[in-house]
Amino acid sequence: MTSAEKYVTAAYLVVLGVLLAYLVIYAFKLSRLEREVGELTELARRRREAEPTPEPDREEVAP
Amino acid sequence: MSTSLRNNSAVALAAAAFVLLLAGLTLAFYWVPNAPVEGFRQRIFYIHVPVALTSYACFGWAAWKALRLLWTRERRYDLESYTAVHMGVIFGILTLVTGSIWARTSWGVWWSWGERQLVLFLVLFLFYSAYFMLRYSVEPGPRRERMSAVYALFGVVLIPVSFMAIRLAEGLIHPVVFDRDPSDNLAASQLTTFVVCFAATLALAASLYVNELTGKRVDERLRELREALT
């Protein structure tokens, strides 16, 4: 491999490397978002369970 | 735009970027002949110049969104302008690194402070890097949105200056293409390869922009949801 070939390959590999690094960072971000969605879903479920359930309406029975 | 349409456009952009990048790489390495003077090392041109032009396009897009924000006061343009600056800085890093590698193999140095084109691009890059410092030094809200928009708009002035610097400079060594002298212009095969590579980097930037913007929007909505629930 000549010197020019090494430099050209390095230039293209740098672009590929930055793209891969971006992909890794984005994967971390996605996993954080997933965790936050999970936490908020749990929070919403607990709040719904804690709320008192309304009693069903009773129909008036004629004497 | 509806969510399903947005998702479809994101998939289409990612697929276009993948196909065009593959085509660009194939053309640059296996089809286009060696340049008469520079030889094999001229192939860096097919990644360096498209990446630089894509960086300008991202900063231009950020300025357009900033203008829309100042004009309409719609908050969504702030996030769009910020994401475009984010992408522009990523492509700016790639421009500086690939340019530096090309300078090393062509001129024997990694950097030349005497080159106005290089220095002006560095100034543009540092200007937009400082955007993040400005943005995160102000509390979120309309004031931060307006300040970020004005800053992004000011930066766009540097783009034509940076682009034209090479043509305004005299007696310097940075190569010039696409000018009036036919001997400096690209051959048909070189131009085809360049166009494919430029389309590839534009599609890649658009795809990254759409994904990043979706991520930032989800982040924002989750924050609002957390505030509503707690």
Short description:
Chain A is mostly helical. Chain A contains one helix and no strands. Chain A has one helix spanning about 5-50.
The overall strand count of chain B is 0
Q: Rounded to an integer, what's the Rg of chain B over CA atoms?
A: 20 Å
In percent, how much strand structure appears in the residues of chain A?
under 5%
Oligomer: heterodimer
Q: Give the DSSP E fraction of chain B (strand runs of 2 or more residues).
A: under 5%
Number of helices in the DSSP assignment of chain A: 1
**Could you state the order of secondary-structure elements of chain B as H and E?**
HHHHHHH
Q: Helical residue percent of chain A? A: over 70%
What is the straight-line distance between the termini of chain B?
Answer: 30 Å
Write up this protein.
The complex is a heterodimer of chains A (about 60) and B (about 230). Chain A has about 60 residues and is mainly alpha-helical. Helix content of chain A is about 75%, strand content about 0%. Chain A has one helix spanning about 5-50. Chain A starts with a helix and ends in a 13-residue tail after the last helix. The mean pLDDT of chain A is about 85. Chain B has one domain (about 10-175, about 185-220). In chain B, about 75% of the residues lie in helices and about 0% in strands. Chain B has seven helices and no strands. The longest helix of chain B has about 40 residues, at about 190-230. Chain B is globular. The interface between A and B is medium-sized, with 24 and 30 residues.
Task: Explain the layout of strands and helices.
The complex is a heterodimer of chains A (63) and B (230).
Chain A: H1 3-50
Chain B: H1 3-31, H2 45-72, H3 76-107, H4 116-136, H5 142-155, H6 158-168, H7 188-229
Helix pairs in contact in B: 1-7, 2-3, 2-5, 2-7, 3-4, 3-5, 3-7, 4-5, 4-6
Highlighted features:
heterodimer, A: 63 residues, mainly alpha, 0% strand, B: 230 residues, 77% helix
